[in-house]
Every structure is written in C-alpha cells, then in structure tokens.
C-alpha cells in the first residue's frame, strides 16, 4: 500500500505537465496549443503563422517505417532483451553464485538472519569492488583465485549500469518520430521484460542442468550478441530529434501552421 503513494504522486505531477510541443504540434495537430505551452515554459512570445513545411506521414510498421526505422527498432528491442537476460539473472541468483564458489556457507548451516546478513555483506563487497581499477590482472588467476572471481563478477554489475542499462531506455526515446516514439519505446521495453523473464527462468534451469560456471559463460555469449546488435542503433549525440527520426526526410510539400518564436 505504501508503495502506491509515490506512484500516485508521480501520476498527479505528470497530469499537470503539458505534452511536449513536438507531440502537440505533430501528433495532436494543435499547433496553437503547442505555441502556448512553449510560451509558458520558455517565457518568450510565440505566435503561429502559416508556412510551407514538408510533411508526409506513414503508419507504424508500414514499408516506409520499416525502411527508415526497422533496423533501429530491431536494435533497441534486441539489445534491451539481451541485456535483461543477463542483468536480471545475475541479480536474482546472486546467492546461488556465491554459494557455488564457496563464498558463503550453505543455507542449511545457518539460520535466516545469518543468511541475510552474509548475503548482504557479499553484495556490499561486490558493489565496492565494482569501482576497483586494474581488474584485468585477475584474469590470469581467475581459476585459482576466489577473490579474483569476486572482483571480476562485481564488474559485470558495474558495466551494465555504466552503459547499456541506462542507454536501453534513453535511446528509444531519441531515435523515432514523435508520433511513434512512445509506441516504439514501449515495444522495446516490453522486449526487455521478456528478456527478464527468460533470464529469471532460464538461468535457474541452466544452473541446475549445466552448472553455474557454464551458465555464466552462456550469459557472456548473450552479452556479446547484445554488443553486435548495438551496431543497428544510430548515434544520437549532437543531433536534434528531427535529425535522428528523419521526420524532415524526403517529404512532399504541404501547408501547415507552425509556431514562430519572437524574442
């Protein structure tokens, strides 16, 4: 019940926020409202006037959409899917991994409070080790050095949060046209949740069948596949949303009301 309070506060705050000017103008087709919202946010005078602009709309999953954004959508969905397989399987089954390497005692040898304490200590050490530089020196001793494994394992949590765990939900919000942005982001996010389910059940099954060591190797393969699929995602740095989405590309001329800024 308490957890619903932040969600309700967020919902209320969002209901008071105006839609983005791009959405209001391009999707809702209410350019005057877009100009009004921009005036209120930017605190400048914005008026609308008739100008000749380029506009040619196409539907989601149409041939034109697939030509422009099909590979981009494949890139965002596949990378989010593959990342969540590895990310959630590691987070959910840390205790099993610690037990497999003998870092914490078997559950039957301690009570529940002792087990929670030891797992918490192990997770704290993992978090601290994530910031330790020079980890490559442990590679040569990984089979003999238990501490070396712990350091390397901790880095598998550091790098997903440093890169892909954040970019998987940022990039889909930048590279698609305004009218498809939420839908494509939702498809990508749904793909990630499927990956989380696969990781949760798949790692448990694999660890029982082929062992924890081989299961971690499989997760490494999954991460490598994710690396390959990142080449389908365009670089968004330094580019406007219009440039990334290609909304002004190869369009027919139409008359539309657009906002003009006067400072």
From TrEMBL:
It is found in: Membrane. It is a multi-pass membrane protein. Signal peptide: none annotated. One of its GO terms (molecular function) is transmembrane transporter activity. The chain crosses the membrane at residues 116-137, 149-171, 183-204, 216-234. The keyword Ligase does not apply. Gene3D superfamilies: MFS general substrate transporter like domains. The keyword Zinc-finger does not apply. GO terms for cellular component: membrane. Keywords: Membrane, Transmembrane, Transmembrane helix. This is BnaA04g21010D protein. The gene is BnaA04g21010D.
